[in-house]
Amino acid sequence: MTPGGKGTRSGKNWERVILPVLEIHYPGRFQTQVPIGVQIYGGTYYADLVIEDPNGNVIVSAKWQQVPGTAEQKIIYDIASLINIMKRSPGRCRKCYVVLGGPGFSNGARSFLLGQGHRQIFANADLVEVISLDGFLARANQGTL
Q1: Nearest-CA neighbor of 31 among 53, 18, 49, 19?
Q2: Which tens digits make up the pLDDT trace of 34-92?
Q3: What is the pTM of this model?
Q4: Quick one: which of 19, 17, 122, 1 has its CA closest to 65?
């Protein structure tokens, strides 16, 4: 898949899968494609979703991997950028989720990411949790995001 092609459209569809549950449990309290800070290499970071919460906003990065490829490697960059943004804006956001979906993640990547392997690499990595769609939807249904 070429950048900006079918893979990008699949990612946008993935974000739309999450929206109905947020509309039920967090009506009027979330926005999509929100600029929240600067990526580690520069440039504006746009969160796929930001859920407004009185105790601090929740940032959601929805990551879809349709076919095997290098996109799974870019998630570590995304996590590093989110940690950096959280550290530079204390109190603004209380939690970041990277929500994984799609059949294209390798078993190693899926296991590492869902096992919170990034916490062995980065300082302050507890600010970001990688979670499956099922786990994310369960927490949203319970109102515990």
Answers
A1: 49
A2: 999 999 999 999 999 999 988 889 999 999 888 898 888 899 999 999 999 999 887 78
A3: 0.88
A4: 1
Distance (Å, rounded) from C-alpha 27 to C-alpha 79? 27
CA atoms within 13 A on the CB side of 35: 4
Structure tokens at 14: 């993935």
- Strand 57-64 and strand 128-132: the pairing is unpaired
